[in-house]
Amino acid sequence: MTTYLLKRLAISLATLVLASIVVFAVLEILPGDPARLMLGMNASADQVELLRNQMGLNAPLALRYLHWASGLLSLDFGRSYTYSVPVIDLVRERLAVSLPLALIALALSTIIAIPVGLFSASRRGRAGDTISMGAAQLGVAVPNFWFALMLIYIFAVWLRLVPAGGFPGWSAGVWPALKSLLLPAIALALPQAAILARVTRSALIEVLNDDYIRTARAKGLPYRAVLWRHALRNAMIPVLTILGLQFAFLLAGTIIIENVFYLPGLGRLVFQAITQRDLIVVESVVMLLVAAVIAVNLIVDLSYAVVDPRLRSRQ
Amino acid sequence: MTLHIDIPEETFSSILAKAFRNTAFVTGFVITLLILAMAVVSYIWTPYDVTKLVISDKTQGPSLAHWFGTDHFGRDILSMIMVGARNSIAVALVAVGIGMGIGVPLGAFAAARGGLVDEALMRINDLVFAFPALLSAIMITAIFGPGAVNAIIAIGIFNIPVFARVARAGALAIWPREFILAARAAGKSSTQISIEHVLPNIATLLLVQGTIQFALGILAEAGLSYLGLGAQPPMPSWGRMLFDAQTRMVVAPWMAIFPGMAIVITVLGLNLLGDGIADILDPKSRRQR
C-alpha cells in the first residue's frame, strides 16, 4: 500500500515538474518581448534593455526557470504586466468567483444526476428509463454557452428574475452575488449532469447484476433499500471518478461561460491575459490549473486504492 | 502466409440487419447523413448568398422567405448554418484524423512493446491530460493566431492521448489471445502483428471513440469560434453566429436559437451513431440487452 501511494505521489510530482517545464518553454519561445510590450512602441532600445535587466529577462534560461519555479512554490507568481499588481492577488480575487461557481455547478449536477441515474437504472428498459436517458443524450449534446444564452433570454430578458450578466461582488451581499452565479452554474451543470447520469446508470446496472445484490434481495430487503444502500454505494467508484474529472474541468472550463455572463472569474482573467500577452498571469494560472487537475487525479486514484483492496497489493 | 482468425463470424448482412433494428444507430445515421448532405449542398446551392449583405433585410424574424430569419447584416440564417456546417465538420473531422493518425500508432506501439516504452508513453499521455484541454486550445489559437487551421491543430493535439489510451487498452486485451501467439509462432514481427491482427480487432473501439471525439470536436470548435478564435468572418461558423446573436437577443432571438439547434442536432446525431455502433458490434453490451 505504501509503495503504491509513494509511486502515485512520485508520478504526480514528476508530471507537475514536466508540466512546468512545458509551460515555461512554450511561453519562452513565444514572439513578443514583455519589456517592449510594457513600455510601448515609442520606448528606446536602451530603456527596453534597462527594464529587461530589471525584470531579470537577461539571465540564463535555466536560472530563470529555477527562479520562476521556486517562486511558484512559495506562491510568489510575480507581478502582472497589465494590472501592475501581484498575480497572486488577482488569482485570489478571481477564485472568489470561479471556485463558488464550480462548486455550485458541481453540486447541482450531482443533485440532478444521481437520482436520475438511480431512477433510470431501476426502471431499465421501461418508458421512464428511455425518456430520462433520451433527455441525458440531449443534454450531452447541448453546448453550455448556447444553453446559457437561452437561459439569459428566458430568465433575464423575458422574466427579469436574475441579472443577464456581471457580478456585484461578495461585498454586495451573499444573495445578490449568488443570484448572479445561478444562471452560469445551471448552464455549466446541465451537460455535466447529463454525463454523470449516464455514468451512474451504467455503473448501477453493472452492480445490480452482482451476486450480493441477489443475496440482499433474497434475504427480504426491499428493492429501494438494496438500490440505495448496496448498489449505489458500490457504483460510486466510477461516479466519483467522473465527478473528479468534472471538477477539474469546471475550474478551467468556465472560460466561455464567464465570457457569456461577463463574470470576473479565473477563466476570464486568463482569456484576457492571453489576448493582452500578459504572460506572467497566463503561466501562473495555467500552472495552478494543471496542479489542480493533477491533485484531483491523485485523490481519485487514491480513493480507488482505499475502496478496492486488490489495487493495494498491486505493485 | 496469412493466418485467418475465426472469431464467431458475423456476416456483413447480419450486422446490417441488426443495425437497422437499432433505433439509436438509425436515428444517428440519418441525422449525420443529413448534416453532411447539408454541408455538401452548400457548395452548390444555398437559399441566399451568405457573402452578400442586404441591410434592408436585417434582423427579420423567421418567414417563408427566410425560414430561420436574417442576421444584423440581412444575411439568411439558414444559408449561414448550411455553410457553417462545412467549417464545423472539416475542423472536427481533421482533428479526429490527427488524433487517430498519431494516437493509435503510439498506443499500439506502447501495447506491443510494453515495459519502459509503454510506461514512458503513458506518462507523456498523463502529462497532456493534465492540461485543461479547452484552456490549452484557447491558448494555442490565441497565440498562433485565430483561424480554422489553428483550431484544428489545437483540438487535434488533445485527441492524440485519447486515441493513444483507447488503442493501448484495446491492444492490451488482444495481445494475450491465442491467435496472436500463433502469429508470433509464424515468425511475424510485433509491428506486423499490430497492423494485421491487433488493429482490425480494435477498429470498432476506435470507430466509436472517433464519433465521440468528432462530436466533442464540433462542440470545441463552436466554443473557439464563439470566442473569436475559430474561422474568421466572412466565413460563417456556428460559434461565431452565436457570439453575434448574444448582444441582439432581445430584438432577434432567432439569431441565437437556430445555430445552437444546428450544433445540438449534429452532436446528438454523432453521439447516437456512436452509441448505436457500440451496441451493434460490442458483444458485451449485446449480452446485457
From TrEMBL, chain B:
Transmembrane in keyword set: yes
Name of protein: ABC transporter permease
Database matches in InterPro entries: BP-dependent_transpt_permease, MetI-like, MetI-like_sf
Membrane topology classification: Multi-pass membrane protein
A GO CC term assigned to this protein in UniProt: plasma membrane
Residues annotated as domain ABC transmembrane type-1: 85-274
Biological process per Gene Ontology, one example term: transmembrane transport
Family: Belongs to the binding-protein-dependent transport system permease family.
Keyword terms: Cell membrane, Membrane, Transmembrane, Transmembrane helix, Transport
Subcellular location: Cell membrane
A Pfam family assignment: BPD_transp_1
Domain of life: Bacteria
Alphabetized Gene3D superfamilies for the sequence: MetI-like
